[in-house]
Here is the input.
Amino acid sequence: MPTSGQRGPATHDRRSQIISVANDLFREFGYRKTSVAEIGKAMGISTAYIYRFFKSKQAIGEAICAHTLEQMDERLREILSLELSPTKRFRLFMSTALTLSYELLVVEREVNEVVVEAVEGDWCTVAGHHAQIYSMLEQIIDEGRHKGEFEKKTPLDEVVDGLAELIVPYINPACVSKRSWHELQKGMSATTNLALRSLAI
Here is the structure.
């Protein structure tokens, strides 16, 4: 997962400690209300020392966000290895993406403020997350074409571009927080059915 503003060695005990302490503080007090100085104070180190590893507070947030989104992507990636037809795999992928996003961005919004901040601020970690989703959708559609479940006339990139646009409202905090879980489920079901009808041979 891409991140910006990272400094120093990628693997270092202090880097891991800074990320861990910052994550605890962000969860307890919120990302916006926590300063780099407060992170340093909690660790007993100077702000200048933290800047040896991270260019800014956002850089620390991106490291935390990257880990959280990687866990989400890993759970989605597990769907690709299940013994399912491409059609069923697509349905499960879409519904799971909604469920994980809702849990992360709505149910646990308070403790995941840094992720919400990243999505709303379009941090590069989120771009990486979207790229992972795009890649997984592409794999599902390509498999469906090879197995004769999906049409092959439309260019693959055009199909995946369209599907990526369809899923965006269901993985964005500004969108999912404005609707009830029932409404989101109903909308995702309708969106998935519409997509599958367009994919049919």
Observations:
- The first helix runs from residue 13 to 29.
